[in-house]
Amino acid sequence: MIRLYEIAKALEEHQRIVILTHENPDGDTLGSAFALYYALTAMGKQVRVENCGPIPTQFSYLTADYRREEFEPDWILAVDVADIKLLGSLRQQYEGKIDCCIDHHQENRSGAKECYVESASASTCELIWLLLQTMDAPVSSMAADCLFTGAATDTGCFQFSNTTARTHRIAAHLMELTPRTGWICRRLFGTKSKARLQVEKQALEQMVFYRKDTVAFLTITLEQQRGITGADLDGITGIPRSVEGVLIGVVLKEKEENVYKVSMRSIEPYNVAKICKQFGGGGHVCAAGCLMKGTAQEITKRLLDSISKAMNEVEV
Prior knowledge:
Helix content is 40%, strand content 18%. It is built from twelve helices and eleven strands. A hairpin with a 4-residue loop joins strand 6 (208-210) and strand 7 (215-220).
């Protein structure tokens, strides 16, 4: 595995850098990419961030000072991209060309020539902070906004079990560099659209419980998604797990007819990444996902069988 100082050296040696994010971008992949953009452009580099889709409205502040340039890159970096499939429509253009990937997922299948993976890190943004420190690169207030966004979103505003003492130390450094951390938390965690509230209402009404109310399933159909944006669904995956007594929460989001994106959340020691891996997915111990085909009822049964087996093994 490549080391951070080697990535720092590569970034210093190259002038035209493209940074790739994953599809359905979240605060961590966007925060990592744009923090690097602001730091590297301040060093005189040409940098472009590539997304396969629009940036969610709630993260629009990250791009306030971004200026897209067209150029032929001499180094390509992916951030928070755990699997080449997550490049979406960018896959064909960049597969086999990624020089390095920085990630914090347990397994990385990005296909990059070199990878720096630290699964104990709460977010990729933590690793980008360490990289910038290694480079002695400037961290502006905009770059700090980006890094704080990734740290906050991937830890559920510092509530999830992946939050470490290092996470808090880095967040403290970032708070010294930007006055907007409180505003960011309110924007991302304390504000909801009317459409989002309607989705939550339906979620609470339709949630189904299993295994003596320790497992909760929520299904969101295509019909229910009409008239709402992806931003309105952001964070919905945490709702089933937030119910008292629930150890594993599952959200099935219909992508197209009989195709569902599965998102799972758990508390330790229940490893949902291991469960999702059985269905071609992956992620973190307590937060993972996969894509499954079939009716919602069929998928629920298959998942519940695997969940029950995994929970029985832990509880023996």
